[in-house]
Design goal:
By secondary structure, the chain is an alpha/beta fold. It is built from 8 helices and 7 strands, in the order E-H-E-H-E-H-E-H-E-H-E-H-H-H-E.
Length: 263
């Protein structure tokens, strides 16, 4: 299937490793020109070179902390200046720290909102004007299965990421006349550094080994295994493509069947 991504211009958040890296690579392999960003400039440039070699596509690497509005503005300005516009925005940021209600301060809540909700809002505010100029666009927000089935011990993620869903659903309606499609994707248990971190926390809390913690996490997955980042990236790449032209305002999980809700 030709996804129609040749020479499309994409910006992918938190893309030096994990899900963001897999998505950036997937888009580049389909012929898109990709801007990647993350806070660590050395890791970011290593990832950019890796994607260039594997895909043959042009990759622009811009060190960015997406929790900082002025850095978001600089990121988008540089991407537009370099490539001439933006067709695809993948909103992604690292998750807030694990913790229960009694473990968290007011500052923890504000930091989570800034990292996961406000980064999404600020990136959309920066990108929508250029998408309108180009006559269409794709905005895809990475959230978590916690927006459909809250995860124990992840109070901050459950709170902040759910806010993204409300924002995106409203935005999808408002931007539909501009042919800008807005969707959310929810990774389940995908083998990334974030999952390793959560497994470590759960192992310490339960007094069990890291491997036992991973096994307990896997027990809730009907497919019986933890997902691979590429499997998740395939969903995002499709939603970014011309083949997803009638899909907007949705929240779709890639979780091996873990979430039991009907919607």
């Amino acid at each position: 299937m030709n996804l129609g991504l040749k020479d499309k211009i994409a910006v992918v958040g938190a893309s030096s490793k994990g899900l963001g890296k897999a998505i950036a690579l997937g888009l580049a392999q389909e012929g898109a020109k990709v801007t990647i960003c993350a806070r660590n400039s050395d890791t970011l440039e290593e990832t950019a070179e890796e994607i260039r070699k594997e895909s043959g596509s042009e990759v622009l690497a811009i060190p960015t902390d997406v929790s900082q509005p002025e850095q978001i503005e600089s990121l988008i300005n540089q991407a537009v200046s370099h490539f001439g516009g933006i067709d695809i925005l993948v909103n992604n940021a690292g998750g807030p720290r694990a913790g229960r209600f009694d473990d968290l301060s007011a500052e923890d809540y504000m930091s989570a909102v800034q990292l996961n909700l406000m980064s999404t809002i600020n990136l959309c505010r920066a990108v929508v004007p250029t998408m309108r100029e180009r006559g269409s666009g794709r905005i895809i927000n990475l959230t978590s299965v916690s927006v459909k089935q809250p995860v124990d011990g992840l109070m901050l993620s459950n709170m902040a990421r759910t806010g993204v869903i409300g924002f995106a659903k409203t935005l999808a309606t408002e931007l539909a006349p501009d042919k800008i499609l807005v969707n959310n994707v929810c990774p389940g248990i995908i083998f990334t550094d974030r999952i390793k971190q959560l497994a470590t926390v759960r192992a310490e809390e339960a007094g069990i080994s890291f491997d036992d913690a991973l096994e307990k996490m896997t027990a809730d997955i009907p497919l019986g295994r933890i997902g691979d980042p590429e499997e998740f990236a395939n969903l995002v790449v499709f939603l970014a493509s011309e083949r997803a032209s009638y899909i907007t305002g949705t929240t779709i999980q890639a979780d091996g069947g873990m979430v039991r809700s009907l919607l």
